[in-house]
Amino acid sequence: MRIPVKFDGASLLFLVSFILMSFGAGLHPGQSQAPAPIAIQNLPPAAPQSAESAQAPPAEEEAAPPMFEVEVQVVTVPVTVTDRDGNFVTDLNPTDFRILDNGKQQRIENFELSFDPLSMVVVVQTSGRVAKALEEIKRSGILFTQLILGETGEAAIITFDREVRLAQDFTSDPEKIESTLKNIKAGTDEVHLSDAVSRALTILQRRGKGRRKVAVVISEARDTGSSATAGFVLRGAQQMGISVYTVSLDSVRGMIDRTKSEGPAAAYPAGVIWRPGPANAPPTPDTQIPIGTANLNILPLIEELVTYTKNLLGGNHMKFYATGSGAADFSSNNMESLENAITRIGQELRDQYMLTYRPNNLDKPSFHHILVQAARPGEKLNVRTRPGYMYTRGGKGAAAPPPPSNVR
Hints:
By secondary structure, this protein is of the alpha/beta class.
């Protein structure tokens, strides 16, 4: 016998609420609440992973991107000093240096040449746009292992196009590093550069204390849809003291190579204005004008990007990551220029000074400009370091962007 059931408004509301509560109780906690930010300073070194596990990081790593915020107590500044001929100057004393933080002189607490063992992430664009350059990059593995890492260094390799992949987790085995680079393959045409650099910072922050942390990015100076903003990524590099060296691949060369094999290209590279050439001649490096980089003082823009974690629209991402982290940007359009860039990076990392100070002016959240001066009687010296850092009072800064859906 069926018993007719009637619901009034209150009963129906109770039933719906009960069903929703029952459904919610079965959800994984990670689905019902936002993950807690990672405390960068207290992270232990990551346990070694096999090559198989490196290809598929845990799901929680994708769901919980780090905040890239550090409570500023001690600032360590890598400083590169060269003479007027571009030669590295390595015989200076602490008294030859002067550090200004927001215009206020600081006391140097520690001074040394960079002898710490190196943790490096090599980030390589593998989109089909740079297939020609990939053949040269494949042969560069021995340069990284012999000229940069040496006997105490370790390296990981990240490749990216539309997706970001950990091709090789940290290892000190030169054969694994060289073999991984040798076997990279071209993928889609997209270039998610900022997502790839963000991933490099994520795995670098987990390396142990007492290691120098560096990323070397080999890519075109373009980004076609990263989830992470350039400002967020650059801010993370500055907060953690990670130098991002960049080797910019020639977009024109890749376009011309593809035009020869596939016919006319569908569009010009993003972020580039073209001047028409004579008689419809193909574009060359002399006829391209990168938007946002010509005749522009980029330091104010770096401050704005880091302060508000904005994206960089139409500018040269590679140049900004290098300049904003105190590193250098090189260009490569053949094997020789690629070798020269890697060699120069290795020389610079061995010949840098590491200066440490405790800021005496952390009174309110703001971007702190760093100015390092070096003097030697009768000689003009050129000094390069990161332009500053963002003080956020215990690391309470801007929230991280949504996790990239293309990272695996």
